[in-house]
Write a structure and sequence with these properties.
The structure is a homodimer.
Chain A lengths: L24 E5 L5 E2 L5 E2 L2 E8 L9 E5 L25 E2 L4 E2 L4 E5 L14 E2 L4 E2 L9 H14 L5 E7 L1 H12 L4 E7 L7 H16 L16 H15 L2 H7 L19 H16 L2 H13 L10 H4 L6 E7 L7 H13 L3 E7 L13 H17 L3
Helix pairs in contact in A: 1-2, 3-4, 3-7, 4-6
Catalytic activity (chains A, B): L-homoserine + acetyl-CoA = O-acetyl-L-homoserine + CoA
Keywords (chains A, B): Acyltransferase, Amino-acid biosynthesis, Cytoplasm, Methionine biosynthesis, Transferase
Function (chains A, B): Transfers an acetyl group from acetyl-CoA to L-homoserine, forming acetyl-L-homoserine.
């Protein structure tokens, strides 16, 4: 295993975390434990970087798996060692928080294909001694979930109390419920869809083309060439970022306000605050994210279509499920609109599943699932409490 | 004047059009007729390429000015000499069409800053003998309209029967009504807004950054370097194109249909039809459009904010107007949603103007204004007929 060479901040073995050290634990899977991929290949060896919070109880019934979104990571509730900022869901997950780590054992692993310590295109391909780049097989949401299940196995957990996630994380939640129905007591998919829409594929394709148009991408082999497609990746991030916000939120936050000036500049510098904001989003993103991982993870989202494996019937995908579901959508989310979430609810109803549905009224768009939304938090807390009670906790 | 060197298909002088030749007429404005720009500078010499259709009547009361959108041109109703395709509004404008050129004299000029024969950043700067590139001052919608007014002057027309246009063309219509209220008998702004929203600025900025991220952009001086930022401009076009369509139209036209294959390819080629479609849109666009013009015209749209010159009051901008207005919006247009159009209607009502408003129900998004939309056509025909009658035609 030479993966450590490119992943400095991760620990070499499962469960080996120093006290107060923010770096992740890493689960290593060797040649005898390959990850079977939907692409028809196997990946071995591979590794998953992960974080846990709280304590697993004696009968291992209080474990909650959190699934992160496209550019997220395993640092749900601890300071992010790369950015130094608070964990991305630290308002929702933690001691005394809606998902209370004094009651529950919370796990989050960096998805396969990403770049925060789990095996991805920037990892070393043991067959060549070079980074995989595009030689890594295309990864699917089901592959991510399959890898997570191997981690949950290794942690000795049979059935998860709940699987929770938003956006691409919500896709993983749905996939968990379909792939391992008996292992998911409750599922909380947030701001997601059962398949990527044509518009979502379109925006992802714009981002990928922006990355691949950058000559520093070098056919994906930029690490070997000692460069990075920073400009292309920044443009991809800017385009995506617009889709995470609602028109109303943009108008409220930025409107046509000018940046550091009294009047229009009559040039192509950032005149408007929204321009500066987007440029900043693009520039800071490239410091923390790998361009090829961006290609792989957007591809995984585009390929996601749960019903496709069941003759186009989402209800069939969920037939005989015992999992308790709660879906959450946000009224101004136009990337995964309420209608997409409601389609899942309808399918679950058709499958006679236990399902509740909450639409949170907010103007903050898709990003709302990462923000301090009291109604969302209280719905999550209520749902998790009720399923914990149902499981005898 | 050395501009002709870069604009091969245009004619050298006003009104000098060969029979059956699709090339445009060109109005030349010399050093004694500078275009006064909002940037605080003057542009001289400059030229406007334009087309006319039909005959101007004896009292010059039947002239209709058509204003084109961002990537449009003067070829409203004749075969486009660059692409060979039908004129962009040939379904609306022509003999026997809703805007009937057997009754009306229709004019359309390529906007200043564009690249279809009018002076723009690709034109030769007489001071240097090189293309202007970014030395051309930033152009505004008001500058475009000011130049059009000089053309209308030269054609000997005092008051236009109507000014018509969609999207950026609609901005010009509104600006005409504000800048030259006595010269606009009727105005038909379509699928537009009185100012660019924060979200629209954001998408434009993504496009500009995509162009400027391309190393072949060369700080704008790509013509002198013998290259073109094709990749960056293609990405910009792809991003913009998604915003021209509605989510419903994309789902209906493309859905998750695969392109020339039975199953997912597990790679980064175009798997989905929507990907092929967008790539095609990007690739064909770069053959017909200048990258710097794209920067200038998106900037002009971003700067547009009619109310800003009137203390933020749109109603004040239109005070005492005698122009008859008809506004048209499309229900699924999320770039210039009905609410933006309705805000203009409200301001016109507050200004006691004559105004009617039609929202066309369609799932085709912003692009609907360029498509065969029977209700839109009949509304346009009805409005133009009524104002022609009111003017005694």
């Amino acid at each position: 295993m030479t993966i450590e060479a490119t992943q400095k901040s991760v620990m070499p073995a499962l469960g080996n975390r120093e006290a107060n050290h923010p770096s992740s634990m890493v689960a290593m899977f060797g040649a005898d434990e390959p990850l079977v991929l939907d692409a028809g290949l196997s990946l071995a060896p591979f590794q998953l970087a992960y974080q846990t919070y709280g304590e697993l109880n004696a009968d291992k019934s209080n474990a909650i798996l959190v699934c992160h979104a496209l550019t997220g990571d395993q640092h749900v509730a601890n300071a992010n060692p790369v950015t130094g900022r608070a964990g991305w869901w630290s308002a929702l997950v933690g001691e005394g928080k809606p998902i209370d780590t004094s009651k529950y054992f919370v796990i989050c692993s960096n998805v396969i294909g990403s770049c925060m310590g789990s095996t991805g295109p920037a990892s070393i391909n043991p067959a060549t001694g070079e980074p995989y780049a595009l030689d890594l097989p295309v990864i699917t949401i089901r592959d991510m979930v399959r890898a997570q299940a191997m981690l949950v196995d290794r942690l000795g957990i049979d059935t998860l109390l709940a699987v929770i996630g938003g956006s691409m994380g919500g896709m993983q939640v749905l996939q968990w419920a379909v792939s391992y129905p008996e292992r998911v007591f409750a599922a909380l998919p947030i701001a997601t869809g059962a398949r990527h829409s044509s518009q979502n594929i379109a925006f992802d394709e714009v981002g990928r083309q922006a990355v691949m148009a950058d000559p520093d991408w070098r056919g994906g082999r930029y690490i070997a060439h000692g460069c990075r497609p920073h400009k292309g990746l920044a443009v991809a991030r800017m385009a995506a970022h617009v889709t995470y916000l609602s028109e109303a939120a943009l108008q409220r936050k930025f409107g046509r306000e000018l940046q550091d000036r009294e009047a229009l500049g009559f040039g192509f510098d950032a005149d408007f605050q929204i321009e500066s904001y987007l440029r900043h989003q693009g520039m800071t993103f490239v410091d923390r994210f790998d361009a090829n991982s961006y290609l792989y993870l957007t591809r995984a989202m585009d390929y996601f279509d749960i019903a496709a494996d069941f003759g186009g019937s989402l209800a069939t995908a969920f037939r005989n499920t015992k999992t308790r579901f709660c879906l959450v959508s946000f009224s101004s989310d136009w990337l995964f609109p309420t209608s997409e979430n409601r389609a899942i609810v309808h399918a679950l109803n058709a499958a006679a599943a236990s399902v509740s549905f909450v639409e949170i009224v907010t103007d903050r768009g898709h990003d709302a699932f990462l923000l301090d939304e009291p109604e969302f938090f209280s719905a999550s807390e209520g749902f998790i409490s009720s399923v914990a009670k149902a499981r005898g906790l």
